[in-house]
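Changelog note: in this version the structure field was regenerated for every chain. One regenerated record is shown below for reference.
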Amino acid sequence: MCDACDKRGRTWNGDDPKCAFTDGTFGENWNCATVGAIRDICDEGQTDMPSGVDYRYCDGDNYATIKVDDIDLEGRPLALWVSWYKSRGATQAMWLLFDNDSPRLPTEKECVAIVDFYI
C-alpha cells in the first residue's frame, strides 16, 4: 500500500481500496489515495485550474495533462497524462510523457512529488 492509502485507511462503507502502487508503478486501482490526490489537482469543480493543467471531459470520460517538466523526476518527463471515468474510484491510465522517450508508468514517489508541487 502507498503511504497515502496507509495513512488515510478506509473512510467509507463498501469495498476496500486497492492501491495503485502495489508493484512499484501505477497499476490497477480503486480509490487509491495518491491517485486521488493527482485527480484533485485537475478537479473540474475548481474555479481556476492550476497553471500547467489541461483538463477535458467527454461523455463521462475525464482526461488531464499535468505539466511536470519543472519537477525533478527521473528521466525529466514533460507531462503526466491521466484518464478516469466519471467520478468513480478507478483511474484507468496514468502515463509520464517524454520528449524523446516512450511513455512510462509513474511511481508513487513521482506522483507524490507532482502532488506536492501543485498542492
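Spot check on this record: Strands lie at 53-58, 61-67, 79-85, 91-97. The chain has a mean pLDDT of 93.
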